[in-house]
Design goal:
three-stranded antiparallel β-sheet; elongated; alpha/beta; 14 strands; 30% helix
């Protein structure tokens, strides 16, 4: 009988007054009934009778706690392993490719095939599974090595490369480009990336001279240094590239907000560069995106189509390739720049006659970019924060096909 403690759920216990370890079962309903008499009979007098309610051990609660601990340990172990990503895949930033028009361009068969896009960044972890089929040409401007490596904080270059050229779990804007990666930046020890301006200029020169780029993507825009020269070696290198008809896409910078100095970062201040700010998922400009100035470095008023920034593109909470075959989330004009570079690669695949012409051809393409954002009222509008508007990849291609001739010379 006593082996089943469920039989004792509804009783109280009354200990013997001489030995509290000896108890008798008591009907709880009799508590308080003829206390004086009962205390005399059972030997408690002159003290009143004291009963103790039954306290059944909550084995279910203990079992649940044990299961919780076990699950926590298993989750932690999976989180530390690559298996975690296979079983619980991360989300993607598909909205960014759809909203920018990259997927629309891919839907008509464009992949970036035959286009050479060069990035100047921190390098690349080429071992990521999403780069398995990537045609990559790498150069490390710190060591001179041609063995791919990412020297940056949070694998910055690897993330930018994924936005353009990933082709696996994640599919970038132009997965079939030939990607040149010039590793010229590195971890600054404070969670950011930095690089010597001469080294960056050399990397830009390598992009057009050795790699023979059609597009140079410069995700160099962090927080602008107000003391940095506006006409230094990187600006000179970019101007040379532009003069050879090579498209340069550069980040506007991430110093928006109350402390914004009103200038996009160098070398995105160069007139012929396509300067890119960042937009959010709702299409509005990201608050951290840098303002553009109304005058250039020579003090002259900027004119269409070179008002800064020229365009904004998705750049908030974008998910891309990271090191060790992982995926990271990133926010900034760097991400937007890589996305626009990828969209431009799709356009150049469609219109190869635009490649390597001259600065006039680049201006024509930029006019088409500006016109692709015109609202229904037919007016051109520019804002120092959001540029001419949000990128529209298909609209840009249509404008080019209808209005751009790009004569040689």
């Amino acid at each position: 009988m006593w082996g089943d403690d469920n039989q004792l759920d509804n009783v109280d216990f009354m200990p013997e007054p001489t030995d509290f370890r000896i108890v008798s079962a008591v009907d709880p309903s009799t508590n308080g009934h003829q206390d004086g008499w009962r205390s005399e009979v059972v030997g408690w007098a002159p003290l009143p009778v004291h009963t103790v309610p039954a306290r059944r051990r909550n084995t279910r609660r203990i079992a649940n706690a044990g299961i919780f601990v076990i699950l926590t340990i298993l989750f932690w172990a999976l989180l530390k392993s690559e298996f975690f990503w296979l079983e619980i895949p991360p989300p993607t930033s598909e909205w960014a490719y759809e909203d920018s028009g990259a997927r629309d361009l891919q839907d008509i068969g464009l992949t970036g095939d035959g286009v050479r896009l060069c990035m100047v960044d921190t390098g690349i972890d080429a071992s990521h599974s999403d780069f398995e089929n990537l045609e990559l040409i790498f150069r490390d401007f710190t060591t001179g090595s041609q063995e791919p490596v990412d020297r940056g904080s949070l694998a910055h270059g690897t993330m930018m490369a994924g936005i353009v050229a990933a082709d696996g779990y994640m599919v970038g804007a132009a997965p079939n480009v030939v990607l040149g990666m010039a590793a010229a930046l590195g971890d600054d020890g404070e969670g950011g990336n930095t690089g010597n301006e001469e080294v960056v200029a050399n990397a830009i020169e390598w992009c057009w001279e050795s790699f023979e780029a059609d597009i140079i993507s410069l995700s160099l825009g962090g927080v602008n240094d107000p003391n940095s020269p506006r006409n230094g070696p990187t600006v000179n290198a970019v101007n040379v590239a532009l003069s050879k008809g090579i498209f340069v896409v550069a980040a506007a910078g991430n110093d928006g907000g109350d402390g914004d100095d009103g200038r996009v970062t160098t070398p995105s201040n160069v007139p012929g560069v396509i300067t890119v700010g960042a937009s959010q998922k709702d299409g509005k400009v990201w608050e951290g995106s840098s303002l553009g100035e109304s005058v250039n470095s020579d003090g002259q008023e900027r004119e269409h189509p070179n008002l800064k920034p020229e365009i904004i593109a998705p750049g908030v909470d974008l998910i891309s390739t990271g090191d060790n075959n992982q995926y990271y989330t990133s926010t900034g004009t760097s991400d937007s720049t890589a996305l626009v570079g990828g969209i431009l690669a799709l356009i150049l695949e469609s219109e190869p006659h635009l490649k390597n012409k001259n600065i006039d051809c680049i201006d024509e393409v930029k006019y088409a970019l500006m016109n692709s954002t015109i609202t229904d009222d037919g007016l051109i509008s520019h804002n120092s924060k959001s540029g001419y508007g949000v990128i529209n990849g298909m609209g840009w291609l249509t404008e080019i096909q209808e209005n751009v001739t790009c004569q040689s010379g």
